[in-house]
Amino acid sequence: MNIVIVGHVDHGKSTVIGRLLADTDSLPQGKLEQIREMCRRNSKPFEYAFLLDALKDERSQGITIDAARCFFKTAKRDYLIIDAPGHIEFLKNMITGASRAEAALLVIDAHEGVMENSRRHGYMLKMLGIKQVAVLVNKMDLCGYSESVFRSIVSEYSGFLAEIDISPSAFIPVSAMEGDNIASHSDRMPWYDGRTVLDELDAFEERESEEEKLPFRMPVQDVYKFTGSGDERRIVAGTVESGSLSVGDEVVFYPSGKHTTVATFEHFGAGETPSCVTPSMAAGFTMTEQIYTRRGELCCRASEKPPRVSSGFVASVFWLGIKPMETGKEYHIKLGSAKSPCRLKRVISTLDASTLDRVHKDKIDRYDVAECEIECDRPLAFDLTSEMPKSSRFVIVDGYEISGGGIITAASEKKDEPSTAKNLAIRRNVKWETSSITPEMRALRYGQRPGVLIVTGLRDIGKKEIAKALESELWSEGRQVYFLGMGNLLYGVVGEIKTEGEVPARREHIRRLGEVANIMMDAGTLLIVTAAEITAADMDVLSATIESERIHTVWLGDEITTDIEPELRVADTSDKAVITARIKRFMAEKGLIFA
């Protein structure tokens, strides 16, 4: 069981662990004597904390910087104890250490009382979904083992925990330095008849059994192929976060909505191949239908409750960056194995984690906890923290630095066109009947990778002529290629919503273009589309319908009149042969066509 110990700086967390190790005979032989001798040589008083504080800076300054880990066991089970730093400057290390803990010991100095970080750490445990918490009131020897001091801290801190919906399993008065109530009851506090720290650890319940009852969730870490030996299988790999999966189960990948069935489980090295995978297992499985999936998807069982899929959500964010988190600025979010550019859309309210006072401002300052709305550049799959904590957690990257983290509390209520298009695409993919001819087989035959090339620009710039010339050249080379003008769609596939004299429903036109493109690409075709002055909003709808990596844009003309950033810009449109040659080079660079 993973246990994290948190609390304000110098409240004795490392000493508690050191005492636990010493009193349970879990130290390597001679380790205790080695530390005592080190203290003697340096004329420093012996401290049990030195058993864990391995870094030089920690010993010299008396604070824990990194999250130290150690193992010990009781008659009931093995433990991994994580000593998380208490100093405010190392809160990021504390969160890293606590992120995989199943239970927590929160230490408060009886002499100093409840401090700012005592409250802040309590709130962090709440955000990380750690429900099993025991509070240790340490250094009781410094206040004469006073019951009144203990009761006063219990009253103050239990009230705070109640406000953030944490019900501690126990408050235990201890003196880690003297060993009181750590591994055995203390005669110095006859007024306390509860469990010792060691007994409380054994009373915590293991989380794995609970996670097995939840719906299956496995972020796709990678997809392996071993084509060198003629092996056409795709092996989907990842670590199981919750639920279980067996051979023969139907799975759905979100946010794409693609589905398949588990054919076999695979593993490296010796040992028996599993027929079922459960939480915390690193898993790799093959599929009966070789669909295209990728890192960042969330694998779920088709028969269970699906995750939410949206490009926006409401979250509680804890900010650690030196610069505040501001609306409009681009950040990157990491959720499971998915990564996407994102922006702070609005701050709903900001919470002082130490006082629980709420204030309203338009940014999130360092050490603030804020309820806010975040908008991502593409849809992500997630669960709400109230339902499944692990798949609701994320971190925010500012530049190259992890600067914040949070939990998703609700999906955005706004019903916009990209979200509608994405939901329809997910429904399509779930029902999609895959062909026995794989995309790799088509790519090998045609010498190309299917994709959509959008040729755009001003209305009278000559887009169709260039697109048709490009189609002819590619066809003469033996490519599977097709030209599609938007007019073909307007009076055919979307004919019922195209009314003469009225403003057309452009978003629906673009969505249906995406559906046509999806069919054409599934057949292995390169689709060349011409459309006047494509916008970023058009691209959002199209990207919600088909994979954005397969969409490529070419702008013709010396002036870009919309808000898109085309991948290729051709200013001089006077020589059609030069332009088509340049676009063909571009397609080769993007891997759309190859020898």
Describe this structure in words.
The chain is an alpha/beta fold. The chain folds into four domains: 205 residues, P-loop containing nucleotide triphosphate hydrolases (Rossmann fold, 3-Layer(aba) Sandwich), CATH 3.40.50.300; 90 residues, Elongation Factor Tu (Ef-tu), domain 3; 112 residues, Elongation Factor Tu (Ef-tu), domain 3 (Beta Barrel), CATH 2.40.30; 151 residues, P-loop containing nucleotide triphosphate hydrolases (Rossmann fold), CATH 3.40.50.300. Strands 2-3-1-4-5-6 form a six-stranded mixed β-sheet, sandwiched between helices. The protein has a six-stranded antiparallel β-barrel with strand order 7-8-13-11-10-14. The two termini are 55 Å apart.
Which topology of the largest domain does CATH recognise?
Answer: Rossmann fold
Give the strand content. Answer: 25-35%
Number of DSSP helical runs: 15
Helix-strand makeup class: alpha/beta
Gross geometry: elongated
Question: Which stretches are low in confidence, meaning pLDDT under 50 for 5 or more residues running?
Answer: 53-67, 86-90
- CATH superfamily membership of the largest domain, which one? P-loop containing nucleotide triphosphate hydrolases
Strands in their spatial order, largest beta sheet: 2-3-1-4-5-6
Strand count, sense and barrel status of the largest sheet are: 6 strands, mixed
So what's the oligomer here?
single chain
Examine the secondary-structure arrangement and name the CATH architecture of the largest domain. Answer: 3-Layer(aba) Sandwich
| Cα separation of the termini | 55 Å
DSSP helix fraction:
25-40%
